[in-house]
Amino acid sequence: MPVLLVCLFACEPFRFSPTGLEWKHPKTLYNLANLDSLALDSGGTPRHFKIAVMADSHLWYDELKVAVERINADTSIDLVILAGDFTKFGYADEYDRFTDIFNKLKPPHLVGIGNHDLQADGVTVYRNVFGPTDFSFAYRGVKFIFFDDNARGIKCCVPKFDSLEKELAGAGDSLRIIAVSHAPPLSDQLDTAASERMAGLFAKYKVALSIHGHTHAYAYGADYGGGVPYLVADALNKRNYVAVVLADSSLTVERVYF
Fold first, then answer.
1. Does 232 reside within a domain?
2. For labelling, which of 101, 123, 135, 232 has a CA lying 20 to 30 Å from the CA of 183?
């Protein structure tokens, strides 16, 4: 006779679907919390620090676990950035699985939004889990500007160019600028006009580095004019992250395999 097992108390709460449309993810605001910890750990040599850059971890959780372990073993890393697409479908369950692993990082760590992450009810879940999709902060002589440039299929106002230019101009002459968004110019997320406008703004304000993912293929160089270096991180299944070291006016980039 078949046995029916009924779970009354110990099982996980039932969710109608994994998308997040039927339930509210608790507000945790991880990016904001990590910005607080970054401010508390802002000592050391001004304008000298090391960033670990990743992107497109999707459902490669085993690779993500190894990357976290490798980064934690490198005590010289001051900040970790993941430039979007940490989910495949934008499901709240994927957010949970990702944060369970990523939040084991010892250095402060920040997450941008990718085009996969905003699918389903992903934008709402992202804002609850991480905070605003566009934000900025200053750290050791550098202004970091995170912004959403996942414009494919969206008719208006992505990226928010007026706000982006205001953030760029706000750096003034005293702060170097690092921009972070998921898609590089001339990808399937940005049409030619938007790509040229973005690259033009970055050249105008002399952005020190523009960080991206999306293409699943590593690239580094000034490909879009104006002398601005663009860094595109590999997808995480290729088992590497990018170490970026800033020291005074210099900047070095190196892939670290694991």
1. yes
2. 101
